[in-house]
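Why do we care about 3D structure at all? Because function follows from shape, and shape follows, mostly, from sequence. That is the central idea of this module. The next example makes it concrete: a single protein chain, its amino acid sequence, and then its structure expressed as tokens.
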Amino acid sequence: MKVGFVSLGCPKNLVDGEVMLGYAQQAGHEITSDSADADVLVVNTCAFIDRAKQESIDAILEMAQQKRDGKCSRLVVTGCLAERYRDELKREIPEIDAVLGTGELPQIVGALESPIEGRESSTGGAQPLTFFKQRGPRTANVEARTAPTYLYGADTPRVQTTPRHFAYVKIAEGCDYTCAFCIIPTLRGEYRSRTRESIVTEARALAARGVKELLLISQDTTFYGIDRQERGALAKLLRELNAIDGLEWIRLLYLYPTTITDDVLAAMAECEKVCRYIDLPLQHASAGVLKRMRRPGNRRTYDALLARIRERVPGVTLRTTFIVGFPGETEEEFGELESFVRETGFDHIGVFTYSHEEGTRAHAVRDDVRAAVKRKRRDRIMSLQQAIVAARQQERIGSEVRVLVDGPSAEHELVLQGRLEGQAPDIDPVVYLTDCDPTAYERGDLIRATIVGAQGYDLLASPCIL
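And the structure:
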């Protein structure tokens, strides 16, 4: 059969989608990028915040319409929304033939092929989802089920859907933290690390296929190995990966403030292929807000942590994310965050307005910060960050840098786009290559270039003449 696949959400969900595609392809099915030509449609969903849930539901409804109108005979829904609202999805969208949660990836082949007994196809069309519009607590159905335990390995089939020159590798699954705003531990289960041998074997295979940049991901990447009582596991892993021929960059995403150890920083500073890039979601800077969020640390400990990182990894790029409008956040507490951003000078930040999610500990508390106030606070932080970045970009003009070529720009096919060591794909700004023949370089090429200007958050660079 021809399988059409829509994957939403974070890179961790993307890897799950690639694994399911691998199982489908191994079973003899053909993968198609044309959903109208698919015999079976799969929607791999996200359910982290309201906006992600709405995007997932819109995608399901669109594919349900295609099932009614086209050649598609089956619709399968997978991922976090499926894990969280399994029964409601089955009940309210009868076009769905199978639902798989986050721990059921190997069952995708059966879901593609086997009819579901006792189910009838709808002729009336998908209706608005009443369960999504409700706001009562609905965690019992999720929590009563067995927590996911699945963990893919080097031998697991996988179809790479990212550009050929970079790939995500999930080094662990699940989470043991109890952050008040987060549903992930319920959806993904307890933290469980892959073996170092499994990760290195997969990395070697990816490098042999042309992957230049490896992005290591998990819910907390610096917690890697701790669940297995392996001291220094992440630093050892980085040093082994650094020795793999063909790889050029090894990037860490999703670090946690209490698990960044000196041996990891030493590996980052000493290994030439490990990007000097720290992605550290701090969420806030006010001690009061952090305590209510059930997050560790305060402004003093964060300042000390960032100073230690910058001392041990000279030239490091710092990226973080914040949540504004958490229940009870006062103007004074927000001011503490604003001051932190101004004085710290992060290279990249993302700011989210708080989403009041059922199933989280914070849902029991009244969401008392108005939506308009949340948006205003987000905009204030982003305006501040824009000024910080603009000043820093001017200082970089004239400097020589290494650029990883990602290919033609989405803005114009005759303009090449790339990234610096301090820029991760899809989440950070990019570098536009000017004054060059776009056919002279291929995806994955690492070239020398000179920064010649800036355009918003992005940089303009001209390739150096060798």
